[in-house]
Every structure is written in structure tokens, then in C-alpha cells.
Design goal:
Elements (H helix, E strand, L loop, with lengths): L1 H32 L3 H19 L11 H10 L11 H5 L8 H14 L2 E3 L2 E14 L19 E6 L14 E13 L3 H22 L6 H22 L14 H9 L5 E4 L2 E4 L4 E4 L4 E4 L3 E3 L4 E3 L4 E3 L4 E3 L4 H23 L3
Main location: membrane
Enzyme class: transferase
Membrane topology: Multi-pass membrane protein
Amino acid sequence: MALSNLQRRKASMTTQSLEITRDTDAEADFSDARPTIDDEYLEQREQSKLRHWKESEYAAGLVEPTWADELESSRRNGQCCCCVAGEAMGQMLQEEIDPGCGCIYLSAVVCSRIGAGRIGNMAVLKERYVWVEGDEGEVDVEDGDACDGFVGDQEVLHERKPASDETGTKNNSTKRLIRKREIQLIVGPFWPMLLFITYPLIFGVSFFTLKNAIPGKPLPLQLVWGVLTFQLIRSLFNTGFRDPGIMKRRKNPPPSENSALDSDEDEPRVRVAFRRQAQSGTWRWSDQAQSYRPRNSMYDPDCKCIIEEFDHTCPWTGTAIGKKNMGSFQCFVALVFICLIMDIFLLTGAA
């Protein structure tokens, strides 16, 4: 009898222990399935990142909204791929290594401290708002997109009614005075190479020539050398620190282009920027920047934005070469060869 009671107690204890184990496992599974505060924070950051990308005033790619966010993201992910000591050699052997990885991390460190703005991977150092006159059709703002700093960051001061020209034909375009952002100083993703390699080379060679070759030379020759060297430095500044031609975001092509696309429905279509477009059209859709772009404009994967009349990305100048800095870049390239040949002649005594 005592033995049967003992067996029943052991069985009851075993059943209770199994129930406790099941409850503990269920609580563990529930805790694993429940999102943590960190997960919710990361999800909100991703939503904010996507919203900023889609509402950005400029045709830029998907990046962190600010350089401070970029720095936080890099540190949360273990810094950039170039800064992890244990994986440095392995990354060097990989063909897929991002050449601008270290520059982007350095931009995040420096620009977050000085409060620089961001457009793609380019750092905005100085900008201002100006009033410009434009046609009514140039204001490409859709309903619900008007918010500070994004698409619709344009304020209409007054509207000028259309007037008739000399032939008596009435001009249907309405002129508006619009408040727009103007970029004054901006650097590309490879600005460390511009500041720490290109400029030191120019200043070093110029100072060496000034100290060892210029003294004793005729005054006209000294003046010519000084003007050419100054223009070389100035053209490099205008290339590396000016807007290369970043496009504003256009969610719709121009009205004339809309009619052209409608008339070209029967034209053969080609795959451009992940969308089928009529081959005869002049505007293309860019999925990377969520914007329409002219045919001669391209999305630069280094700068992460669409550049008008994009030519290439020059690491020596630190930025992309496009419509607005092409003249300065060509002047810089020409002056590099002229000044280099002149310095060689002066240093060797041929002059």
C-alpha cells in the first residue's frame, strides 16, 4: 500500500514537471516571436529612410537621410567594410569591394560633425534659397507631396498673367516667381582624395618650383607662371566643390514628352532603367532615383544621384563630371599639362 502511494506521488511530480517545462517553452517561444524595442526602432528607421527617399527634392538614390544616420548605421553594422580589422585582407581580395566604402564612412564622420547636408553620397557644404521665374508647367508638384525640404519646397511669390507678343498671338504660359534651393558648395564621395592627394601634389610641385626655379627668372615669365598656377587651383576648386548638375526629381515627364509618348505607343520599346519605354522618347524612368530623366542624363552609382549630361566620375577631383562642371574640368585637365611642362622647363633650366 505504501509502495503504491509512493508511485502515485512520483507520477504526480513527473506530470507537474512536464507541465512546467511546457509552460516555460511556450513563454520562450512567445518572447522570441514578440518584436523587441530594437526591432521596432530599426523598422521605423527603415520606413523613415524610404519616405525620405521617395519625397526627396532631388533625384537621388536610397541612402540614409543624414550623415549622422549614416554614421550610426555604420557603427551598428560594425563600421564600414574597410574599417573592420579582421576582414580587411579578405575584403581586399574580393572583386566586389566598394571603392568608395572608406570615403563614405569618412564623410559620415566629418560631415556629421560640421552639419553638412546630404544628396545621395554628396555632401552639401553651403546652400541658399533664391527666387527664380519659371513657367507654370515647370513646377512639378503632385498633391500631398508638399513638405519642407522635399518635393514641393517651392513657394510661389506672385503670378504674372500671359501677355500678347508683337504679332498679337497670346502666350498661354503663366510666369511664376518660385523660391528654390541653390547649391553653392558641394563635394563628391571621393573628396578625401581631392583634399589629401590632388591638392597636396599641386601645392607641393608649385611650392618646389617657386622656391628653386622662379627666383631670378624674367618678370613676365614669373607673372605667366603665377597666373597659370592660380587658374589651375581655381579650376580644380570649381570642379570639385561645385554642383556637377544634380537633377531635381521629376515624377512626370514634360507635357510635350507626355504627348510624344502617347503618339509612340506603336513604336518598338526597349528596356531602359528597368522599364519598357518607347525608343523614340527622350525621357526615361530611373528606378534608382524614382524620377524621369533626359536621355543624356544618367544615374551615377558613386554619387547616388542623377547627373545632367553625365560623363564620368573622377576620383582626382572627388566628384562626378556633368553639365555644370564640365567646362571647369576641361580647363583643369589642360592646365595640368601646361603647368607640368612649364615646371619641368623651369626646374631643368631650359627657360
